[in-house]
Amino acid sequence: MADLKTTLDAGGHCVLEMPSGTGKTVSLLSLIVSYMQFYPTKRKLIYCSRTVPEIEKALAELKRLMEYRAEMGANDGEFRGLGLTSRRNLCLHPEVSKEKKGKMVDSKCRDLTSAFACEKGRANPGSVPLCSYHEELNNYETGNLIPPGIYTIDDVKKYGKEKGVCPYFTIRRMLPFLDVVIYSFHYLLDPKVAEQVSAEMSKESIVVFDEAHNIDNVCIESLSIDLTRPVLDSAARSVNKISDRIAEMKETDSQKLEDEYKKLVEGLQEANDHREDEDMLVSPVLSKDMLDEAVPGNIRKAEHFIAFLKRFIEYLKTRMRVLHVVAETPQSFLAHLKEITYIEKRPLKFAAERLTSLVRTLELTNIDEHYSLQLVASFGTLVATYEKGFLLILEPYETEHATVPNPIFHFTCLDPSLAIAPVFERFSSVVITSGTISPLDMYPKILQFRPVTEQSYPMTLARNAFLPMVITRGSDQVPISSRFEVRNDPAVVRNFGSILIDMARTVPDGVVAFFPSYLYMESIVSAWYDMGILSEVWKHKLLFVETPDAMETSIALRNYREACNNGRGAVLLSVARGKVSEGIDFDHNYGRAVIMFGIPYQYTESRILKARLEFLRDNHRIRENDYLTFDAMRHAAQCVGRVLRGKTDWGLMVFADKRFARQDKRSKLPKWINAYITEAHSNLSTDVAISLAKKFIRQISQPFDHTQTGISLWTLEDIERRQLQDKEEAERAENELKTAMGKNSNRNGGDVDMEEDDFRMDDYDDGVDEQELAMMDLPDDM
Amino acid sequence: MAGETSQVRRFDADFKKVPGTLSVTATHIAWVPKTQGAMDRQNQAMDRAINMLASKAGSKSISLKILFKDDIPAGGLLFVFSNATSKEEDRKSVQDILIPFVAVNKNPITNTSASAGGGSGSASASNDTSNVVTPSTSAAAAVMSANSRGKRKAEDDGTPTSTPGGGGGGVSTPISPAVRAQRKKEYKLRQKVLEKNPTLRMLHRELVIGKQITEEEFWEGREALIQAEEMAYAQKPGRQSRLLDDRFELDAGRKGKSTGGTGVGIKQAENGPVVLKLSKELTREIFEEFPVVQDAYAKYVPEISETEFWSRYFTSQLWERHRASVRKSAVDENARKKDDIFDQYLEEPDWNIQPRQSLPDDVERYLDLAATEEDHGESITVRDVTMQAGRERSALPLIRRFNDHSKKLLRAADANRGSGYGSGFDLYNEIDLEDLHGPAQETTIALDVQDSDEMADKQGHEDNAGVLTGKTDEEIQEIAAQSTKILSTFTPNFASICLPNPGYHTTDQDGNPVITDPNPAYKAFAEQRDAQAAAFHVVKDLHARANAEVAINTPFPEQLHEQMRSCHNAASEFLRQYWSAILPTANGIGTLGHSSLQAKEAKAIKMSGYLKSTENKVKAIVETSVILGFDPERVRKAMAPTVGAVKVALEREAKRIKRV
């Protein structure tokens, strides 16, 4: 917490690694909330998490924290906190909410709520279907759509149901008035979304990226676009549709097109005066001055723009016919484009904007049909906007052995710092934290920022609550590995299988197994079935497998948890980097053991990855191998870290690959895991590992006094004692400290001392630090 | 029939073509050759019999093969009944006696085609080559009927088989079937309990079969055992968790059989004849797993025979699909013949990314992966080949089936309980870290002490006393501190205890020894030395004696040991019976509902009678030991606790009688 506060005071960024399941969310929240409440200049907290379950959990933590604060006498008054998620998760409309696909929900919702639909509907009730939930919102005062307080996503939905208001728009419209906003990374990082939802966030806001170990990939993904042939075909279709529509409109309502033309001359800014309910793609990080510029003349007219798009699509299609791999920079692509089609860079830059404006003018409905066209347009915009850090790769075949071409045109971002740079620029304090973010220096390097603090906190355990083991050989002494050359070797497959069988036999309740990739999991599962390994597993536990469909997997997960609860026990097979590995906790009986089959390396044959590695090597001096290992190990750590939540929890962590035994791999694991891998446990064969596991389970199941008081849970007295001690030491440095802290620290000096003994941030329960923080808020108490 | 007594029944029977007599007692079955030494005697405990095989009705020789546990003797015993007039009845009566044992011992669910071992001759020979369908419905029914017949027979006869030593009383009086069933059940349970506890069985044999106490008396007070057994017995094995179609287990070891070797359903020998093996469980499982088959069954079975239905099913493509093996189905998809019934149920494998079956939408928020997926917006990038889920299309139906199967199993287990999970989903529970709770209040378990109030009162008075009376806390603390201090600074000074040898003579100032009188310091030294020597002796002696105690004695002779144990066992059982008879029980009446006060009284007296004889028994054992040349003292010592316990009981009994 001291580190965090230093960061906040200094107005800089920081990277923190805190072991998973030690209450890091609440530690962060409690400090920041107190901090916010203490200073009159209300700084907003933007808390970004990765998945919806995590958002929901963070909201619940916050809610509880505020309850506690109220209990302790802090007056938080008008404090508001909400979480934002997609319409799909919030919609209450009886028909729209039935849609499974988020895109469909968005488009249907737009049809019912867009400005022109509303105008029409209100002017002439019944002519256009409107969403009653959305209409109802207009009866509420702006900025006070929902009473103060903290609402989880489900709470808002419930509230919406009661009052008949739309939860999505409630949150959207409340965004500028909130003290805490919790949403997913994408809303801040993805330029396509960020402009809409995060534009109003003040500069003073504190931004927290929780579970940020994967943030660079999110950044890259948000600026990359892949085009396939079906996409292009469908884009071509929608261009035709739109041109029909334009022709139609010309006859009926040519005035509107004229108006638009005029507006475009004045500049995009006016044309796009932001409407929250317009969800077409909005300005992928175009600079301010560009927005004010007039749209180039040759695409101002609707027909011209359509022709322009048609040409562009045609060009892309021709490019796709090429049957060999092409990799080129945006510049060379643009040069070639100009040569063939005379499309210049500047108009292309405006393609996405222009399309948005056109769609609005035409009052199109069902915009999900035009999704592909949007993709193409934003592809054009991105290509024309960025010159560095990007690469265009055309892959005619999906795999090396495929014979049927299935071309993909990747426009790939190589530099994650591009997407996150606006965030670092705009917000003064950005906190990046996760349970597994080792090695810490990697992130500042690849994201290109300079943190004020980098810290990795150890875990204080009253007992060894988890047992990491590295299994390198099967019982038959055949080394096991997921290396590409040997992964399909029957001996390896069988040995992996026997680990699973033995674990299923030994470990109570839930066992989770992770594979390095979907491809491998799918092939190994069928191989295991044919080898009869799975029927062995079935004797001990039920078996669930992650499937491509998210909903299906959710249901499998629920059944898995049920099986763990009722004592039947279950095994879940899943994929590192997959859906399950991110955001689902396997705490307590849901995961008594986690097995990592192989090292989750990325697919090294991927050209995108190769390009990225090259980029990293050239620009950041990170060796390919280092990065690959780093990337694999953070995912492995993330997977195994899922089993532990809290110190009463316990679990086995099994790393089944002989390469885990090597020091260079292990050193990249987070400190708190690595510290517990002893040399003796780092090179085991299956049978030895199983007997060790048995011993561990027997030992850990003994009754244990879990009172953490004095060890990692400090009572007020402990803290005061520590403070006294620190104060004496601090007195010397105090003057120095004051100058460093700026003028605020004079008032707050005492607090700084208090923070300093909180160096074991993970060890605090909300009770203790809340007491202390409550005191900070109300200095009279002291 | 050669039955002579109710205890032992004898039949003429040949064993390995040697004529002899088969005798059946309550517990054993024995065969003795007619001519001495012609053959080894055969003697087996009946509770080891697991199966009987009878020759076909109408065949020339009337034989009965009895198989025993663990296949010892190997291959079982084959008896051919030789009494020309009554051989069939002979066999029947032997079977009737054996049936309950076999029924108990045999795994209740076996589907081997040879299991139908009833006397009615419904046995199927294993070398049948025709297309025989033996749905286990009939097989099971046969076993059941055999069972019930055995039951009825045993009870009607009133043979002591059913309740050995049961006194025989009451059997002749008509009892309602319910009571009879109850008794039968109880008997079975008792049998099981005995089987599980060898010591108890020995005791049972000694006391009950030795007619010292009755069966009922023996079991009184042991209800808990029976109850536990009953509960264990009542636990039904659930559905097997394996997937239907495990060729692996069944085919294990049978290599090279690839065609049609589905293991579960149908078997085809190399040269053609097809044997269909099917059990009720299997059909049920198939129906559960694949509702379409049930559908087809309902539609077609009256028209085509069951045999045909199943054999067609197992050869159909549908079955091939249902077996869901990735490799197999790919290979001989086309090799399978067309089938008009089942082919219409064929459908595309469920191998698209989106599952075919519609899914419910109500997953807890914490598990909702779809929400996240939507939240992140549609991914506009394509993941690389290895990370695209569902690329291996053929694996998908398999994976789906795994999930589905596991779910079904879960539901099957939960069916009785209803879905307890899923409703009250606690939000805070998910984020709660229990280790971060403050120290909880200590939970203490209150001792259930009688007259606890009184105790508390007493304690209350004594509490004032504290550790040291009349001292304040400070004083006590001071004392403690002082003691600690002393202890912590304590270093033993051996020099002050151990005197150096000053030499016999004192020296004068010049250093010359003064011879006149001994050095006084030396005297002290000598004293100490002597004391040391004495102490050494004492310690050594003690050590030797202590070792003598743990030295290994010669073991008791086997015969004596056996006697002692038997005596001890009997005595403790009598004691148990005695105490249970006289001690008040929780509800005031006897532990068994029906034993009234009078019964208890009678029992107490009876038991005390038995107990009185214990002393004599012990004496007899001691005498035996004298005869055997064994140290009688040791026997007496060994039996002392038993005798002591008996004495206590007898004294109490004497007092009690006086009081009455």
UniProtKB/TrEMBL annotation, chain A:
<dbReference type="InterPro" id="IPR014013">
    <property type="entry name" value="Helic_SF1/SF2_ATP-bd_DinG/Rad3"/>
</dbReference>
<dbReference type="InterPro" id="IPR013020">
    <property type="entry name" value="Rad3/Chl1-like"/>
</dbReference>
<dbReference type="Pfam" id="PF06733">
    <property type="entry name" value="DEAD_2"/>
</dbReference>
<keyword id="KW-0411">Iron-sulfur</keyword>
<dbReference type="Pfam" id="PF13307">
    <property type="entry name" value="Helicase_C_2"/>
</dbReference>
<keyword id="KW-0479">Metal-binding</keyword>
<keyword id="KW-0378">Hydrolase</keyword>
<keyword id="KW-0547">Nucleotide-binding</keyword>
<keyword id="KW-0408">Iron</keyword>
<keyword id="KW-0227">DNA damage</keyword>
<dbReference type="InterPro" id="IPR006555">
    <property type="entry name" value="ATP-dep_Helicase_C"/>
</dbReference>
<dbReference type="InterPro" id="IPR002464">
    <property type="entry name" value="DNA/RNA_helicase_DEAH_CS"/>
</dbReference>
<dbReference type="InterPro" id="IPR045028">
    <property type="entry name" value="DinG/Rad3-like"/>
</dbReference>
<dbReference type="InterPro" id="IPR001945">
    <property type="entry name" value="RAD3/XPD"/>
</dbReference>
<protein>
    <recommendedName>
        <fullName>DNA 5'-3' helicase</fullName>
        <ecNumber>5.6.2.3</ecNumber>
    </recommendedName>
</protein>
<keyword id="KW-0234">DNA repair</keyword>
<keyword id="KW-0238">DNA-binding</keyword>
<feature type="coiled-coil region">
    <location>
        <begin position="232"/>
        <end position="274"/>
    </location>
</feature>
<keyword id="KW-0539">Nucleus</keyword>
<dbReference type="InterPro" id="IPR010614">
    <property type="entry name" value="RAD3-like_helicase_DEAD"/>
</dbReference>
<feature type="domain" description="Helicase ATP-binding">
    <location>
        <begin position="1"/>
        <end position="261"/>
    </location>
</feature>
<dbReference type="InterPro" id="IPR042493">
    <property type="entry name" value="XPD_DNA_FeS"/>
</dbReference>
Automatic annotation (TrEMBL), chain B:
<dbReference type="InterPro" id="IPR027079">
    <property type="entry name" value="Tfb1/GTF2H1"/>
</dbReference>
<feature type="domain" description="BSD">
    <location>
        <begin position="270"/>
        <end position="321"/>
    </location>
</feature>
<comment type="similarity">
    <text>Belongs to the TFB1 family.</text>
</comment>
<feature type="region of interest" description="Disordered">
    <location>
        <begin position="113"/>
        <end position="184"/>
    </location>
</feature>
<keyword id="KW-0677">Repeat</keyword>
<dbReference type="InterPro" id="IPR035925">
    <property type="entry name" value="BSD_dom_sf"/>
</dbReference>
<feature type="domain" description="BSD">
    <location>
        <begin position="175"/>
        <end position="230"/>
    </location>
</feature>
<dbReference type="InterPro" id="IPR013876">
    <property type="entry name" value="TFIIH_BTF_p62_N"/>
</dbReference>
<dbReference type="InterPro" id="IPR005607">
    <property type="entry name" value="BSD_dom"/>
</dbReference>
<keyword id="KW-0539">Nucleus</keyword>
<keyword id="KW-0804">Transcription</keyword>
<keyword id="KW-0805">Transcription regulation</keyword>
<feature type="compositionally biased region" description="Low complexity">
    <location>
        <begin position="122"/>
        <end position="148"/>
    </location>
</feature>
<protein>
    <recommendedName>
        <fullName>BSD domain-containing protein</fullName>
    </recommendedName>
</protein>
<dbReference type="Pfam" id="PF08567">
    <property type="entry name" value="PH_TFIIH"/>
</dbReference>
<dbReference type="Pfam" id="PF03909">
    <property type="entry name" value="BSD"/>
</dbReference>
<dbReference type="InterPro" id="IPR011993">
    <property type="entry name" value="PH-like_dom_sf"/>
</dbReference>
